[in-house]
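Researcher: Re-running this chain for the archive, since the previous output was lost when a drive failed. Same request as before.
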Amino acid sequence: MQLFLNKAHYPVTVLGPGRRIGIWFQGCSIHCPDCISRDTWAFERGQRMPVAALLAWCRQVGQPGFDGITLSGGEPFDQPKALLALLRGLQQWRQAAQLDFDLLCYSGYPLAHLQQKHAPLLRLLDALIPEPYVDAQPMNWLWRGSDNQPLVPLSPRGEARYAAFLAAPADQFGQRLQVSVQGQRVWYIGLPQRGDMARLEAECRERGLQFAATSWQPDPRT
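Model: Regenerated structure tokens:
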């Protein structure tokens, strides 16, 4: 089984509690207006990776100990078979190694749609942040891009780990963004405030740094 992958990163500290493995699926059919991750929309832009290879990478980077895994995209539920294989593999690893990491997943689909179409997948998650991103909505809540997006615990582990964060303010931990530099590419991980990316682009331009392409601008190939 293979999946279309945009990127994977460790550690992630701005998309869920603690130090986490982050996995971004490539490909999204929802296309929320004003999405800042337009680079994840087109399936053909991602790398095809065997789920087994991704699981092996997770086991390797997670050796020192970590708190959870966050799945985002793109849209994970647009690859339901690959998502199922990945979640089963992660659960088997967690049980066999007697670990206690949680599984949090973002989705742009409404919660009711996921409950109707993908109930078996939800049963393998500990927490879910569903609903499409709405740029007109404020972003008052921790780990959420707009206020219409709830944080939904889905398991006893999820209830225990996320109960304290259901109504936590967005700035509870201060930091909203992480920066990762890989060669000439700069990755921003997290949920910026409205206008942050445009301001960043303008400030970089003033200092002589010009972005060849940005994830938050429309891609003519999509």
